[in-house]
Amino acid sequence: MADLNLGRTIFGDPVNAGNTMTEQEALELLRDWVPNERLQLHMRQVGAVMKAWALEKEGLTETQAHQWWLAGVLHDADWDKHPDHHCRIIIEELESRQIDPAVIRTIACHGPRHFGVEPESVMEKMIYVFDELSGFIHAAALIRPTRYEGMDVKSVLKKMKTPSFAAQVNRDEINDALSRIQTPLEEIIGFVLEHQAGVA
Ligand SMILES: [Fe+2]
């Protein structure tokens, strides 16, 4: 695997604080950049969970929560076409579009071991928590006849302890992400189940 270390920890320009992209612009970028529909869905799921967390758990405004959504929905935007430069390309695109540095840095924080950027803000910590877990939970839903319907936290926990299930999902990374926040795993799983089930 290519070295994805970004070699820097500061992103964007502080004068762009508050600059955003509309929902339509972000989804357009997604359609242009991400031919893989399953990956697109993953990104929309992470976006939805991020936004819901910002609103429900952090008590943020719609405007602030939109930034959380934006970071989630764009975090893997360059993975399909530029796997060897994953994260760098979308970061540079958002910098050239003069997007809020907090959004850009959050994207840079979704894999500290790969990109070399440590999550500091709550938004940065939560994208790291949700990314792998959201993908894992979706994989678990896909093998159930009723998908998300009737799926509970316990069954997800059981699957996490089965190394052969969704083996590509790194359990160490999930644990590392969780060690940086106060919320227990069970609560996070419940929250993801509740908020990504309806994302199509
Ligand atoms: Fe992801």
UniProtKB/TrEMBL annotation:
<keyword id="KW-0378">Hydrolase</keyword>
<protein>
    <submittedName>
        <fullName>Hydrolase</fullName>
    </submittedName>
</protein>
<dbReference type="GO" id="GO:0016787">
    <property type="term" value="F:hydrolase activity"/>
</dbReference>
